[in-house]
Amino acid sequence: MEPDKTIAAQTSVPVKSLFQDAVKKMMRHWQLYLVIALPTAFLITFNYIPMLGAQIAFKDYNPVQGIWNSPWVGWKHFEFFFGSPYFWPVIKNTLTISIYSLVVGIPSAIFLAVALNEVKHLRFKKTVQMVTYAPYFISVVVLIGMMQIILSPSTGLYGQLARLFGIDSPPDVMGSPAAFASLYVWSGIWQETGYGAIIYLAALSNVNPELYEAAKMDGATRLHKIVHIDLPAIRPTIIVLFILAVGGLLGVGFEKVYLLQTPLNLSASEIIATYVYKIGLIDANYSFAVAVGLFNSVVGFILILIANFIARKVSESSLF
Amino acid sequence: MQTGAAIKESMADRLFLAVLYTILSLIMIAVAYPLIYIVSSSFSSSDAVIGGKVWIWPVDPTLNGYRAVFIYPEVWSGYVNSFVYTVLGTALSVTLTIMMAYPLSRKTFYGRHFFISLLLFAMIFNGGLIPYYLVVKALGLLNTIWAVVVPGALNIFSIIVAKTFFQTTIPNELYESASIDGCSDIRFLLKIVLPLSKPIIAVLTLWSAVGIWNSYFSALIFLNDKSLYPLQLILREILVMNNVQMTSMNLSPELIQKFEDMRNLLRYSVIVVASVPVLFLYPIAQKYFVQGVMIGSVKE
User: Fold this and answer.
1) Which of A37, A67, A222, A290 could form a disulfide with A57 if both were Cys (CB 3.0 to 4.6 A apart)?
2) ipTM
3) The whole model's pTM is what?
């Protein structure tokens, strides 16, 4: 055996046959490429072309010259954003809302799932699930509308209750910056906990019943079983959802915050998404808005990679 | 002996369960009460509602709130628009999802990992709102119904769930034996995979339909023409901006008396009317949504 020849055989011939192999494999399923072509075109048009369009964050975009021909300005818009008086309030508001949601939201869903898992009375379990799950189907516009109705200091339930306790003019919570984060988070708890519990219930349903039996034999109480069997069983699910939540820390959704915003609570309710919408689509200051949006996307991307990396280090479960 | 030991709960456990049942009952009441209050208010007179007399059941039952919905034309145009957007958008979204998920579920599909990476990257990184808006604008979709239907049609999370479903329910042997019989890939998808995939099609349909019906964002940024507004944008004006433009001009004298009553109750009844279509879906939706979440939680 001559070493030179084997190396040559290993490098040149397989490359050629790899290519032929690939073509052969592709030809065998040419119809599948036909099928995937249309959704791929959508993916490129609405996900990847906007990524290319994000280059106007480094340009002074004007519609006449378009995305590709507008003049480059480097980091100007980013520097302007980092130096603007809006920078810290907007970041702080976004993080306050998302961390608050995460800290309350994940434990609530876990609590509900673990509690439901203990219920052996099937009718009761089904009823609780059906009721707690229902608000998930209500639109966010209706949710905010209900909050306005119920929390009205003059005519709402909140006002009526306050008067029962002898408070004649209760404060307007919907207009209060101090109450904003709590309103956002707790209305979310009301709407989404039932839905959020499903995924944990699914994980709990996979627990081997023999584990419970064995624990029972060893004299474990129900609380012991929750701590030593249930919680470890849903640990991978918790970690994956936690990574997703960390990745979304700066990505607080536009829809709900925008509806909850009033001129009175703006100091607490202006977040990155609503800020981008206003400077971009209302004031038509495209390049600056794209810079803010891009900053948001990049930080979100880095956050999700870090969270995933840490999760993989400390446990078996990760997202990818 | 053994069965007796398994059924019998210790004192501590019985106390624990009692606390648990109480807490769950309280949670259930806390979730249900706001809904009951809104529905009951919508059937009560506006004096009773404003005067704080409604707690659980309707007081001075009246249908004035619902009459108001009937004479408020924008609610109806919004309803029709939302219906059209939901049907078209769902049909497109489910079709695209299956067209992408099925090839990716096939292990012998060359380039599978490339496409999956393309999807995952798009899921965790995006170009932001303005470039997205500019693409929709460049395609000439602004202020057309397609702006609401087309840009958001591809849902990456749904694709991943559907792909997992195909991988776990369509055995490879099925394809192999069909292909020996001369069945092409497209024919196999249409004649064999789709009939076996009713549960996932139901999940995707419901996710998409509820999502489109309840969303207002695309319409807010892409539509100017009020006659194209979906129901949620009309609701936003009535409920959130408190902008009720009801004219008493064409009303009979008898109705004018009721006018103020109707104006006040509109905010309650419109909530009920807007949520009814989704509530009809709810029993089916609940079953399939749970299935969908479970499929989604299975890791490859």
Assistant:
1) A290
2) 0.89
3) 0.89
